[in-house]
């Protein structure tokens, strides 16, 4: 069958994703009927991939092909007439989702919206959805679902590359990130010991000279606090000076317009696996990440202010430490200690959440979130679409992901 990307066995390989089923249909049915729509003896790579995938998932549809109309210009879908093992006739349509949804199937408004949003979600991940619909005699067309398709160039047979490398985080932001990681680990461990000295083993407490142990712990805690504050100041400077737009102040504002605000909810649904195929794709941080990290900056600020207020208790009349004593006067010293301790637990709870979101982005969205915080960039498949691409400033401002390189890559021997 014809598809938006030319299919040639000498040039490409086919990758099929997890099918999306509509209504009461199973994802396996989508693949099985997509395979049943292949003409007998087809040598087309897509048809062969569909048949192989359907066979892997279960028994194929037992049917005999009685007619086949090829997709053509102005008619971007094929129609196959089959007769099943019971002698029932069935028509199977495969092809362009927009044409099938709007001009052939014409589903209800709810299903139409879901079909459009599912197509957009697949397209944003560089998948090309193959729509599959069926019709029994004297009945209406019914949309079964989509089969995500990717067409890959075979190495050594087609010059060029399917991916481009783009910077997303600069060196200063990455240094700040890992500086925070180190400082938070030291601050959390030492802070817990300060808050709960009974954690020290009894045999260690009975050791001669252990009386100054808490002094050493406090010294390490304050040293890590200085590192944290220094990193925060570097990040504030970097927010204004970075050449990459995803690292600047604007990237911390998640509600720039109504569309961005709506994307916060859609992204949250995807993270909870409610509607993972409708999540908007972002090259940098999505609105939910922007909201989360902006909140964490404010939490870090509150932790720093409360920590300086406690640190300055030894010299409340000094000009510097006196700047933070207002918090002790307003809340009371013990309440400030409690606030500092509670914020520590908020940060501790944030760590596994942050790790989950990063691992999920790498494994589900394949965004390279973890590796990009080491290398600073992401490999992006050509044809992928992002809400925040292209950037308005920086080295990639004049480029688009769909551009071909000026010179084809040389094949390696």
Could you write a compact summary of the structure shown?
By secondary structure, the protein is an alpha+beta fold. It has 12 helices and 9 strands.
Write structural notes for this entry.
Helix 1 crosses helix 2 (45-57) and helix 3 runs antiparallel to helix 4. A hairpin with a 7-residue loop joins strand 3 (63-69) and strand 4. Helices cover 46% and strands 14% of the residues. By secondary structure, it is of the alpha+beta class. The strands form two sheets. Strands 1, 2, 3, 4, 5, 6 and 7 form a seven-stranded antiparallel sheet that branches. The chain has a two-stranded antiparallel sheet with strand order 8-9. The protein folds into two domains: 12-158, 3-Layer(aba) Sandwich (Calcium-transporting ATPase, cytoplasmic domain N); 165-381, Transmembrane di-heme cytochromes, Chain C (Fumarate Reductase Cytochrome B subunit), CATH 1.20.950. The chain is elongated, with a radius of gyration of 29 Å.
> What is the overall pLDDT average?
78
Number of continuous helical runs: 12
The CATH superfamily label of the largest domain reads: Transmembrane di-heme cytochromes, Chain C
Summed up, the domain count is 2
Taken from the alpha-carbon principal axes, the silhouette is elongated
Instruction: Kindly name the structural category.
Output: alpha+beta
Query: Mind describing the biggest β-sheet?
Result: 7 strands, antiparallel
CATH class of the largest domain: Mainly Alpha
- N-end to C-end Cα span: 34 Å
- Binned strand content: 5-15%
Rg computed from alpha carbons, rounded to a whole number of angstroms: 29 Å
Fraction in helix: 40-55%
Quote the CATH topology of the largest domain: Fumarate Reductase Cytochrome B subunit
DSSP, total strands: 9
User: What is the N-to-C order of secondary-structure elements (H for helix, E for strand)?
Assistant: EEHHEEEHHEEEHHHHHHHHE
Q: Which segments are poorly predicted (pLDDT under 50) over 5 or more consecutive residues?
A: 1-11, 155-159, 400-413
